[in-house]
Structures are given as C-alpha cells and as structure tokens.
Write a structure and sequence with these properties.
The protein is α+β, with helices and mostly antiparallel strands. The protein has 21 helices and 44 strands. It is 26% helix and 26% strand.
C-alpha cells in the first residue's frame, strides 16, 4: 500500500517529521517497507530554457542546443529529441547525476565530434512514465534554475506500507490516518461526506438474482450521471496516481482509482450508452465468456459472480470490468457502481482465473459495508467537479447495513493476556479513537466494533488493539517460572534425527538442497507414487502436479541443472517429507542424497594428488550407513541385500533392511530409464533412508554416559579365506563368523574377493579379517586355534564355505 506524505496529511493533521511517522506506523503493526524521498531522487534536475537548437554538423537527427540552466553561462547539450527547439522549457541534468529511468550515470561526452555537457530529459528517463517520443516540454512560465521536483510537486515522499490481510481498513489512506491519530501522531480529519441530491430517477434498474443458490452480492448501489466530459484528469490527480505507481487513464477511471486507494472502496464505471437494458447480478453460466479490460477473454463457470445486462456479461463482479462497457473520451453518460461481494468467492474466482487487480485485493479481504453508499456519493461529487454533468438518484438492491457485533469484555482481560496495567478510562479512550463504542463502567463492559473492522471478533482481538496502540514497549518484561522440575527436551525424536542426519551428510561433503514437495505425474509413477489421492487439485505448475513419493527425482534434476551450468561434479542431499498416501501415517521423513560424476566423499573433481574416479554405488552406500549410524540405528541388526526398486540399476544397487519386512532404505546407481525420464546424464548414484522406519532405541535408566570400556589385553587379528559358491553373500560369511563366539569376536571385515585362475568355475574366494578381543586374560595359542576352528566350522555350516588352501 503506497501513499504520499501530503496525501496522508489530507486525513491527518500532524507536524511530525517523516521519520517519526514511519516509525510509528511500524510500531502499530503497519510495517513500513520503504520510504521513497523523491526530493533526493530528483534533486539534481532543474528547469532549463533552450536558447538555441541548431542542426548537428555530423548527424541529421541530432541538435546542438545552448541551454540556460539559471546558474551562469549557457551549457552546450547534444539532444536527439524531435521536439527540441529554441524557447522551450525542459528538464536539465548536469554531468555527474544518476538518470533513474535508464540507470546511467551522466558524464561529459563527445557525441559525433561535438561536446555535450548535460542532458535534456524525457519522462521515461526520469522514471515518470513510458513516454519517450520527446523531451519534457514544460509551460513557458516555469522559473529557470528551480528544482524540477519542487516546481511540479514531485518532491512528496512516498511511503510503502505492508498491510496484513486482517486489516482491510488500512488498504486506504483514510484508515491508516485513523490508526496514526489513535496512536497519538496527529489529529484525525474525518470529514463527513455530503450526499449529492439526485435530479432525476436512475433509469437503469438492478436485480440480485441467485435463485436457490447462496447469494454472492449482499448489496449493490448504482447511479447515472448524464452529460459528463471525460478526458485526461487534472495534473494533481495524475501526479498522485503516478507517485504510487498507477498509470493515469482518464478522469472517470482515475477517480475510481483515487477512491480505491484513499478510502479502500473499489468502484466501477460503465459507459451508460453501451449498457443494454437493466443490470442483473447473478452467477455466471457454465461456458459463458467475458472480454475483460485487460484485453483477455475468460471462460466462466457457475461458481463465479457477474454483472450482466440484456446482451450478456458486462463485468466480473468485484474483480474487473468489461472491455465492451469501458469508458473512453467519447463517454457522455456514465453509470457508477458501488457494491458488496462475498470475500471468499472473490478470492476463489480470482485464483481460478489468475486475475490480479486492486479491486480483487480489497474485496477478498473485506471492505466497509457502511461506506458503500457514501463511497458512491464521494465518487459522484468528484465526477461532477471534474467532468460536469447531472446526477440521478441512487438505486440500491439488497441491504448494505452491517450486522451489529457486540463483545462482552472483562476489563481484567488486558492484564491477563498482555500483562499491561491500564485503567478503564484509558481503555475507552484508545478504543474510541479507533472507532469502537464502549458501554459500561464495571468489571464487564460491552464493546461494539466499527463496520470497517471485520477482523475483530473476540476478547483477544480487543486486547491486541489496546496493546498495539498503547505500545508494546509498555508491556512489562517478566521471566517465565522455570519451576523446580528439570526442563524436558524441546525437540522431538524426529527433529533430533533430522538434525543428526543433516550434520552427518554435510560432514561427508554433500551440499544441502531444498526442493519442491511436488513432482510431475510421470516421475511420481516411476518412483512408486502417482496415486489419484496424491494429485494436487490446483498445482502451481504442470510439472509439479503430484506429491513426491521420493526426494531422489528432485535432487537428480537439481544435480543435472548444476551440470548444465558448468558444475558437473556435484553432491546434494535433502532431509524432507515424502508421501506414500493421503493418510497421516503415509507422510514420512527421508534422508536422501545424490552424487554425480566425480563427486567422491573425499573430494569432488580432479586433483594431482589422487586418481580421479567416478562415483559408484559404494559411495552412496557409505552415505546411507553414515546416516543410520548418526541417528542411532541398530547397526548390528542391519542387513544389506542386493537389488532395489525399479528406478535403480538391478545389478548395482542394494537394499538396507532389518528383517524382510522393515526396509530402511535403498542405494545404488540410477537405472538408465530413470535418467532418461528425468532428463539427466550419468554417472549418477543415489540413496534414500526413511528415518521413520528406524526403531526407537531402548530407554536408558540414566542420561549419564556409560563407563569407558578399554580392555587391558592385546587384541588378536586372524585372516581367513573361504571358498564358497558364487551366489553366497559376503554378509552371510561375516554374520557366521560373528556368531562363532560373540564374547571374543569384536569385529569382522571383508578385505578381498577373488575369482579367476586357481578358483574352480562357479566358486569365489572371500577373505575376512576377524578381530578377537580378550577381556579376562591374554589368549594362548591353543585358545586362538580353538576360536579359529569354531569360526571355520560356523562358516561352513551356514554358507558351505571351506577354508582355502
């Protein structure tokens, strides 16, 4: 919401400086996003007189002008504007100034061999409009040497306020002024609007026709003004609209825009000569089309509200008028509309059609119903003043009167909710300045909200208003009572797991990414999703239509986009939500990562100190295991089996599980079909671990760390090489060796797998290193041999492996 300081002072009598007003606006909840001081922006530009304009000796379309800037000797300027001529007044920019419309810093320059020491500016170069057919041609009585912004009144600061959705009254300067006055920054000017008497009856009738469906228009007001003279609006009105970024169109339209921003009351004007018969406010018919003022044709349905005449739809209610009944310079009779609409319907229609307008912005947040008719009177007054004509009476369909809303308010509620000590007279004074009515003098009072504050519904809203105006700085600081009981952890178990997973993956050289929770339907189906219940009803884009069943496709696409821009060796991870169905238990948290090209855990890219190698399935296996270890998964119980889902390579992938029914995740190289579907190029490997499926650790009786266990006896390591069938998994051999003696065997690792010469076909050699850790005494040779025999026997029993000779 933008407005100028002088505009604000039309509703607020104040001498406070701009900085104080801006600070107070933020303090009362109307955050100031920017203050544009045009006195500084246009400070270097002055009014100048062109003494002479001669043809450039080396260019047909350029002129060499001698310019009187009012500061001494004439200045030579090379100008290419066709309207540059002797005797005209223009806007001069000296060397060293910044040109806001082009972003250039002006310097002394040689133009086709002639020196130019400045510039005569157009409206576009000043950032005032898109006009660039010539330089600005000022009236002949403009004083030479005066600042351009000061002479034309463009030195008025512009304030940009962020209005929250619950404050529809502050979408107009009038409402902002009321809040400032209530906060003690000046006196509110709430001048009453004098009704304009009608000279004749309005010949156009209005009917609200919604049949048996819920009405979408509570009230509709209309007035005809005959004999208007439309054209460009006066300079003061154009400057006011330009200052806040609106383009002046013509007087009738500019008046409606002015009232929209001044009073938060959108209006619409119809060219009465283009309206056929009477107006009907109704639901649109399915398939009905409408040509809007933005030049686009929209197809409507029965959920939308329209204003129609005997010919068809003339306006999309509360959002945008129609091209066919728009006002132009030939308009002589005009119908002015002021209506009320159902905010939810305006929002739904605007979203469905993708139309954004000032009217929609205000109507979907709610407007003051009590100002419907006064807003029409104000528009009538301005039209008669600026365009002339005679007005009819006002015809109103429906009932614009707002329903009363009274709140029973305990005076002690302010102290209870906000801790603020305030007396009842102070409370009444604050609420009275905001427009509330307070009745009663005891512990319980009745408060009636004003018609422009539909957001105030209960007691807490009243407390908020009092604290907002009195100042949050008046609320005393009070420490929370910590109590005698130790405080419980703030983070949930899943939040702790999420943070640990992120730290573990970051430590392995992966970069965190945050991607959309939506993917294309074809991608969702490939990764196990695509169910109808996971399809979005209103997707933000065609390729973001389904809730993602996996984070892998999003990270693969992100990695490929990095590669397309020159960053081929990239490793990304994300810990986020995946969706297997539409029930609460179907929303899971997954830790997912991808590695591309040369993004190895020990460093990405090529380097002289190590041999560059492409990523493989074992890199992401290590990533997945690191995540599981970091979040406290039972590592001894993990099983890794070959193969994975269809989107992974069947021979270069694995599944991590605890038993056959609890699959924790997958890892491996992406299947070529998956790469092709995602538009990516390999090598690309990925992993995904579902954190929700990791068993919760058993509760410990104490939070203290266990005693450090450092056995005093030397460990013993023995190597074994077993001949087994080619189909036997190395993990089964490791598990068998661990079972041989769980007290002594502290670790088993695979360090060699061999097939080839010396090994019979269909067999392979798997070598393991077994660590034996005695705890009671140093092991003798006989004890070591005994344990070794148990290991060989257990491996033979469970895998059929025999010790290799």
């Amino acid at each position: 919401m933008k407005f100028t300081l002088s505009w604000l002072k039309e509703h607020l009598d104040t001498d406070e400086p701009l900085e104080t007003i801006a600070d107070k606006l933020t303090m009362i909840g109307l955050e100031v996003e920017a203050v544009e001081d045009k006195a500084k922006k246009f400070g270097a530009f002055t009014v100048a007189s062109v003494i002479s304009a001669e043809k450039h000796p080396n260019a047909d379309k350029l002129r060499v002008c001698m310019v009187d800037t009012g500061s001494g000797a004439p200045v030579q300027v090379v100008c290419g504007a066709p309207n540059a001529r002797a005797g005209m007044r223009g806007v001069f920019a000296p060397p060293g100034t910044h040109i806001p419309g082009t972003g250039l810093d002006l310097k002394v320059a040689m133009v086709r061999g002639v020196e130019s020491r400045g510039m005569l500016l157009s409206e576009r170069e000043l950032g005032l409009s898109d006009e660039h057919t010539g330089i600005i041609d000022l009236p002949a009585d403009m004083p030479v040497g005066k600042r351009f912004a000061e002479v034309l009144g463009l030195d008025d600061p512009v304030i940009d306020v962020a209005v929250t959705p619950n404050r529809p009254d502050c979408n107009g300067v009038h409402g902002i002024a009321r809040d400032l006055a209530a906060a003690g920054t000046g006196t509110f000017k709430d001048a009453s609007i004098t009704p304009v008497p009608g000279v004749f009856l309005c010949p156009v009738a209005v009917k609200l026709d919604f049949a048996d469906t819920p009405p979408l228009c509570p009230a509709f007001g209309l007035r005809l003004i005959k004999g208007v003279k439309n054209g460009p609006s006066p300079d003061w009105l154009q400057r006011r609209l330009l200052a806040i970024g609106l383009r002046p169109i013509n007087t009738l339209v500019d008046i409606t825009n002015l009232i929209t921003y001044d009073r938060a009351r959108p209006l619409h004007v119809f060219d009465a000569a283009k309206v056929h018969g009477h107006l009907v406010v109704r639901r649109a018919r399915s398939g009905e089309t409408f040509l809007a003022l933005d030049g686009k044709t929209y197809t409507l349905d029965e959920s939308m509200c329209v204003i129609a005449d005997d010919k068809g739809v003339e306006s999309l209610a509360g959002i945008m008028g129609g091209e066919e009944t728009g006002c132009s310079e030939t308009t002589r009779d005009v119908l002015i509309e002021s209506a009320l609409w159902v905010p939810q319907n305006i929002a739904q229609t605007g979203r469905r059609l993708g139309i954004h307008s000032d009217a929609r912005y205000r109507f979907e947040r709610g407007v003051d119903p009590a100002f419907m008719v006064p807003g029409l009177e104000l528009a009538t007054k301005l039209v008669l003043e600026l365009c002339g004509g005679t007005a009819s009476n006002i015809t109103v369909a429906g009932d614009p009167r707002p329903a009363d809303h009274v709140i029973d308010f305990p005076v002690t509620e302010v102290k209870r909710l906000a801790g603020l000590e305030i007396t009842l007279p102070e409370m009444k004074d604050v609420l009275g300045r905001l427009g509330f009515s307070v009745a009663g003098s005891g512990e319980m009072v009745k408060i009636a909200r004003p018609s422009w504050r539909p957001d105030v519904e209960g007691k807490a809203d009243i407390v908020e208003e009092i604290v907002r105006i009195e100042g949050v700085d008046r609320v005393p600081s009070a420490p929370f009572d910590r109590g005698d009981v130790p405080r419980k952890p703030v983070l949930t178990g899943m939040q702790v797991r999420t943070r640990k997973a992120k730290r573990a993956l970051g430590a392995r050289g992966l970069v965190e990414a945050v991607t959309w929770s939506f993917i294309a339907n074809a991608q969702a189906e490939m990764f196990g999703g695509g169910q109808p219940e996971l399809t979005l009803a209103n997707p933000i884009a065609a390729d973001l239509s389904d809730m993602r069943p996996s984070i892998v496709p999003s990270l693969v696409i992100a990695a490929q986009k990095n590669a397309d821009r020159g960053f081929s060796d990239v490793g990304l991870f994300e810990v986020g939500q995946i969706f297997k169905g539409d029930r609460p238990d179907d929303q899971l948290t997954a830790a997912t990562g991808v590695r591309r090209a040369l993004a190895k855990p020990y460093g990405a890219g090529r380097h002289w100190s190590n041999r560059a190698a492409e990523v493989d399935a074992f890199d992401v296996k290590a990533d997945a295991v690191a995540v599981l270890a970091a979040v406290g998964a039972p590592m001894q119980a993990l099983q890794i089996v070959p193969g994975g889902p269809p989107w992974l390579h069947p021979r270069r992938s694995g599944t991590i599980q605890i038993g056959a029914h609890n699959v924790l995740g997958h890892f491996g190289e992406l299947h070529p079909r998956a790469l092709e579907a995602l538009g990516a190029e390999g090598p690309l490997v990925a992993f995904e671990v579902v954190l929700d499926r990791i068993p919760e650790p058993k509760a410990k009786p104490t939070c203290a760390k266990p005693v450090l266990d450092l056995p005093p006896f030397q460990p013993v390591e023995r190597d074994f090489a077993f001949l087994v069938d080619r189909a036997v998994r190395a993990g089964d051999i490791v598990a068998a060796a661990q079972r041989a003696d769980r007290k002594l065997v502290s670790g088993v690792t695979v360090f060699d797998v061999y097939e080839g010469q010396g090994i019979e076909p269909g067999k392979k050699s798997v070598a393991i290193a077994v660590m034996l850790q005695p705890r009671e005494r140093t092991m003798t040779d006989e004890e070591i041999e005994s344990v070794s025999a148990k290991i060989v026997a257990e491996v033979n029993k469970r895998t059929g492996g025999v010790l290799r000779a």
